[in-house]
Amino acid sequence: MNSEQRRKERQGAGALGQPPEIELNETFNPFRNDNHFDGAYEILKIILLLPVMVVRLLVFVTSLLLGYLLTKLALFRATNVLTSPFPQWRRSLMLPVRLCARVNLFACGFHWIHLKGRPAPRHEAPILVSNHVTFADPLFLFFKHLPVIVTAYENLNLPIAGAIIKAMQAIAVDRISRTSRQNASDAIKRKAMCNDWSHVMIFPEATTTNGKLLISFKAGAFTPGFPVQPILIRYSYVHMDPCWVAEGPVIYWLLFRLMTQFHNFMSVEYLPIIYPNLAETKNPQMFAERVRLTMARAMNTSVTQHTFEDATLAMEAVRLNIDSGSALLEFGEFNKISPFRVKDAKRCLSKFLTMDSSKRGSLTFEDYIKAVNLPNCSLLQQVYRYFDRTNSGCISFRQLQHTTFVVVKKMIYQMNRRC
User: Fold this and answer.
1) Counting Cβ atoms within 10 Å, is residue 418 exposed (0-12), middle (13-18) or buried (19+)?
2) Burial, 347: exposed, middle or buried (Cβ in 10 Å; 0-12, 13-18, 19+)?
3) Segment 50-104, tens digit of pLDDT
4) I want to staple 395 with a disulfide (CB 3.0 to 4.6 A). Which of 72, 281, 363, 408 is the partner?
5) What is the DSSP letter of 247?
6) Which residues contact 270 (CB under 8 A, 6 or more apart)?
7) What is d(CA 72, CA 76) in angstroms, rounded to the nearest whole number?
8) Distance separating alpha carbons of residues 382 and 396, to the nearest angstrom
9) What are the helix (H) ranges across 108-234?
10) Residue 258: what are its φ and ψ, rounded to 5°?
């Protein structure tokens, strides 16, 4: 089938009717670190800075261990750490730990950090929201604000970092459990209402991205209906992209590369406080979307419908040794068609890979007829063209899943009408 044949056959409805009208443009992959290690300059620089890296690493480890010991001192005989606000004297004990966090950033090459805008007092904006790029983001926010953060439940059990997270009186959430997410939402509202707590700090994307766009926001930060102050964290670079994402360097290699740079650039911008209107207090997702668009305009970037579930799927794609971008569904858009869980998507991805004989992340018509084990015929060609929404002669995983659910949804709708 050449492109002209496909175009002509698309013009007619055929036995299966007209293909469903849905947007399936390929989008940017926010979970890929595109910076690669190459060039004689980078090799020479690493060799030159190896002694500096050793010193930086010693400073980093020493500061981390010192911060841990000071945290244990601050938590000594403290009760109800995650449910009752600290008195001021105990919060004061955390000041040296915050300074240790700044030393860690310095050891990673962030010698100075450019600040723009004014941090709002807690009584004006009890909730802070920020984009999330790498491990340096929470280090800076911990140093600057000592906020109450929302974090994954398993992070409380991390060695060293777990104790520091507890000292931040974090709100722990199991992102898979609906009950846990609801409890976390209640805790956010409760802590944001009381000025005895610090700022509540939330990364509404719920995962890290490469910082080149904003993915879908979770509604947790916006459900209480309180004013929020957005924070934009940017990393300018030429040779070293610091983003910590699914398809990118592991944390140890990332630290090594950061410590073998002369200097790493980080800028933090505090945007004006955003107040919800009446409609947005009733519809937190509407408020979240307005904040996201405001942040995107300030960053001069775009937004997508990728979610934390896409980040999970990207990690699965990396584990299966395929391009993560070919596995992304944009769950925010996909769930408008039909509810779909990550474990279902992983199962479908594995099945798709068994059909993809070339292992390039897409199915040709030949791959497709082998997978369905049927002979080539005009009806099967038309079925294939239902999936080939871009008229390219091959099917991506995203095209296959979207079109399948659109067709199934239309069939269910027709059956319900007949009944």
Assistant:
1) exposed
2) exposed
3) 999 999 999 999 999 999 999 999 989 888 888 888 888 998 999 999 999 999 9
4) 363
5) B
6) 115, 116, 117, 118, 119, 120, 229, 230, 231
7) 6
8) 17
9) 136-145, 161-167, 178-193
10) -65, -40
